[in-house]
Amino acid sequence: MDAPHITQEQADEYAIGSLEPELARAIALHLAECSRCRDMVREAERVAALLAASQPLRRASPRLRSRVFAAAGIRKPGPAWRAFTIGRAAAGLAAIIIAVGAFSGMLGLRTQVNALRSQNADLQRQIDEALSQKVALAALTQKLEDQQAVAAELRETLKSDSELFIALISPNSQVAAVVSVSPERGSIGRLVWDEDQKRVWFVASQLRQLPPGETYQLWVNSGGRYYSLGTFAPDDAGFARYETRVPEGITSYDTAVVTIERAGGSPVREGPTVFFVTELSRLTRN
Amino acid sequence: MDGNPTPAGIRNLDRTVEFARPADAALADRTDWPDETLMLAILERDQHAFAVLYDRYVDLVYSAAYRILGDPGLAEDTTQDVFVRLWRRPETFIAERGRFISWLMSVTRNRALDEVRARGRRWKREGGPLGDPAESAEPVFHAAALDPGATAELNEERLAVRRALNELPPEQRRALELAYFGGLTQQEIAAVLREPLGTIKTRIRLGMQKLRRCLERGR
Q: Please, what is the average pLDDT of chain A?
């Protein structure tokens, strides 16, 4: 497996119970899959157990034995045990008969409470285990959803690439060069206008990052009127790929420009022009 | 049941662990059976096996519970819960996870700390009822003098760890005890002792190292 192994120090801390709960849970999950680390933790748990066992010993009350057997529901103890206890039982029989009458309800209740408490502790541990599994499952589910989102994004990109490729080879598409207004920079990209798919692609590189509050906006002029095709921003490398639909009501354009407008875009062309679009043939001649 | 446990073993995650089957002549005296064989018998509802295991470890369980809870009544309640659980759910002892004593002490510690938590966080804030047990008025007896049923190996290891604990610097011992018996995390120990977290981690690491070394020397 790929997860790193735990250290001896972590094994000790886990065994002695001094880790933060989140880390202890993570290690427990790892141990379920890693026999090497499990062996290390077993050894550390042995040391921790001996730490408990090496404490000064105290004798448990002899009465505790009968309590435990009663709570465990053991009604018929073994012969050795019966022989051991029968003498005392006979000696105290009269007292017990009286005491049982008075306290049987209380003892029964006590036994039930203890049994319930034990069951509750067991249940709590089962809940903890289930929660650990739920946490692990949630992490896996999240990872799967993330991967599905990445896959969906890749599918969209692939579909868009296919459509752009079709537009580039279509005889009804118009491909123009995107040129900077600064003469020294020249062509930086292409504008592809596909009448068949009713789509427009703007692809360019070497775009500078704009300060906050400003955005690039693409416009086409058709019949003397400018139509906004929307705003876009380059990535960190200065590359922009923007795709949109052909505006309703027009089938072709005369010119196109990119301006810098306020963030969110402008309803009318106001900002300075930074790029314009020219026919590829004209660019070649220049 | 009174019969001998079958050698089927306790089913584990990926394999079956088998334990030695005692000879018929030994059936009458389960006190010679190893812990794991007794657990196997308990799995088959052998009350005598349970009685032997109880007698073998009740004082250890009670002492550990008392060390955590600092109260005889609560320690008895915890001891009862531990053994009732052992009888009702013996399958939770997974033999492959380690020795029986490790499992038993772990169950005892968890149950006692559950009780501490159920009684609020006050003990934790105050560092837990972790005074020196020798200061208590309750009678304390020494490991070497009892538990005839426990294995000689366990007794030797307990004494070795006891000696090693006594040789630990007090601050290392305190850090180990607050973690194991107080149920405190390293962050909480650092807060209680007002020491940097790194110092507490070092103390626990060195303390465990010394205990382990002492056990290895004894082998």
A: 80
> Can you tell me which residue has the tokens 């896959």?
A151
Q: With 0-12 CB in 10 A as exposed, 13-18 as middle and 19+ as buried, what is A31? A: buried
Residue B2 one-letter amino acid: D
The stretches of chain B forming alpha helices (DSSP H) are: 35-43, 47-69, 72-88, 100-118, 122-125, 152-167, 170-180, 186-193, 197-218
Name residue B49's amino acid.
A
Q: Which of A8, A33, A68, A107 to mutate to test the interface with B (most CBs of B within 10 A)?
A: A68
For B134-154, write each residue's pLDDT tens digit. Answer: 434 344 444 444 445 456 777
In chain A, whose CA is at the least distance from the CA of B58?
A: A60
- CATH domain B7-119 topology: Rna Polymerase Sigma Factor; Chain: A (1.10.1740)
Site of tokens 């420009």: A257
Give the three-class secondary structure for A264.
coil
Both tokens of B197, joined, read 């977290």
Q: H/E element holding A104? A: helix A93-169
CA end-to-end span of chain B, whole Å? 38
Q: Which of B33, B66, B102 to mutate to test the interface with A (most CBs of A within 10 A)?
A: B102
How high is the pLDDT of residue A33?
83
Residue B132 has pLDDT above 50, yes or no: no
- Summarize pLDDT for A3-60 with one digit per residue, the tens: 688 999 999 999 999 998 888 988 988 888 888 898 899 889 988 988 888 888 889 9
Query: 3-state DSSP helix/strand/coil percent for chain A, to nearest 5?
Result: 50, 20, 30
| List of chain A residues whose C-beta atoms are within 8 Å of the C-beta of residue B141 | 56-59
In terms of C-beta distances under 8 Å and separation of at least 24 residues, what long-range contacts does A105-110 make, across chains too?
A: none
C-alpha span between B116 and B106 (Å, rounded): 15
Q: Residue B187: its pLDDT value, please? A: 92
CATH 6.10.250.3280 correct for B134-219: no
Q: Do A20 and B185 touch (CB under 8 A)?
A: yes
**A12 inside domain:** no
Is 0.90 exceeded by the ipTM?
no
Q: Quote the number of domains for chain A.
A: 2
Residue B10 — φ and ψ, nearest 5°? -95, 125
Nearest CA in chain B to A59: B59
Assess whether pLDDT exceeds 70 at residue A83.
Answer: no
